[in-house]
Write a structure and sequence with these properties.
This protein is an alpha/beta fold. It has helices at residues 2-13, 16-58, 78-85, 98-106, 179-190, 230-243, and strands at 67-71, 111-118, 123-130, 135-137, 143-145, 151-154, 165-168, 199-204, 213-217, 223-227, 253-255, 262-265, 274-276.
């Protein structure tokens, strides 16, 4: 009893600042204990997740594949994805290997990247990132083309009518990225920022041909020849479309490769080519050919 009272007297005798400091120190020690326990808990949880993923590959909790969960797919149907993955409900779960499934999925033309994971409940999760079509490679067997210029998958002749048709003079390998097709896709996507109509088609001349890229715009008759370096010709194209009289926009071809000039060719049977200033439309001239 005497000791208890003595402890109380000693506590009352301490300055308030000392008591507050001691209280703060106790709070910090408690917070540190909580932080350590929280870190330990998070570490245990991470280890448990990793162990569960590892066990799902080594231990077969259920004998058969019960469910396939697909994430991220919008264009591919479940049946097509299952066929590409090579799995189906009822398959022996122990023979379903996530890495092999992801590899088979990634080989599908529409799939840019794929991941697969097995869950101990008998579920196979497939996460898919699809390729985005930016154009259509024209020809007997049309193919969707992505931003890298890769003709990645066959499509119907009338598929994606809002996308430009790419018409290369040189052969393009299916499934392989093409610098020429990628440049054409980038050109088509520049037009909206210039206030021009969208591209209906882009023709790509053979290697070494000075015509380079030729552009057809929706709602306009001419084929606009831009050359091998299309950037300078785009400004001339914008000025020409803004200032050209209606009869000029009925020409078969408008060659924009020449500085401050547009060379017009009428529809066949045509006469001599016309050269015109895209702003003022000079008198017809044959001083420059289409080259």
């Amino acid at each position: 009893m005497r000791r208890l009272f003595g402890d109380r007297r000693r506590g009352r005798g301490r300055p308030p600042q000392r008591r507050a400091a001691r209280a703060r120190g106790g709070a910090r020690r408690a917070a540190a204990r909580r932080l350590r326990s929280g870190r330990i808990g998070a570490g245990v949880l991470a280890l448990a997740i990793a162990a569960g993923a590892l066990l799902s590959e080594r231990v077969v909790p259920v004998p058969r594949l019960r469910h396939v969960e697909v994430l991220g797919a919008t264009r591919l149907g479940d049946a097509e994805i299952a066929a590409a993955a090579g799995v189906a409900r009822g398959d022996a779960f122990g023979e379903v290997h996530a890495a092999q499934v992801a590899e088979r999925l990634a080989a599908h033309g529409w799939v840019r990247a794929a991941r697969a994971a097995r869950l101990p409940s008998g579920t196979l999760v497939l996460a898919i990132a699809e390729r985005e079509p930016r154009a259509v490679l024209a020809g007997a067997e049309p193919r969707a083309v992505d931003a890298e210029g890769r003709p990645f998958a066959p499509v119907a002749l009338a598929a994606f009518p809002e996308l430009p048709r790419l018409v290369p003079a040189d052969a393009v390998a299916p499934g392989e990225p093409s610098a020429a097709l990628a440049a054409a896709v980038a050109l088509a996507e520049r037009l909206a920022g210039l206030g021009l109509p969208p591209a209906a088609a882009i023709e790509i001349a053979a290697a070494g041909d000075p015509e380079g890229q030729s552009l057809r715009l929706r709602g306009l008759a001419p084929r606009f020849v831009l050359g091998r370096d299309a950037e300078p010709a785009l400004a001339r194209l914008k000025a020409f479309v803004a200032a050209a009289p209606p009869e000029a926009l009925l020409a078969a071809t408008v060659d924009l490769r020449f500085q401050d000039q547009a060379v017009l060719r009428p529809p066949p049977p045509g006469g001599a080519a016309q050269a015109a200033d895209p702003r003022g439309f000079a008198d017809p001239s044959t001083a420059r050919g289409a080259g």
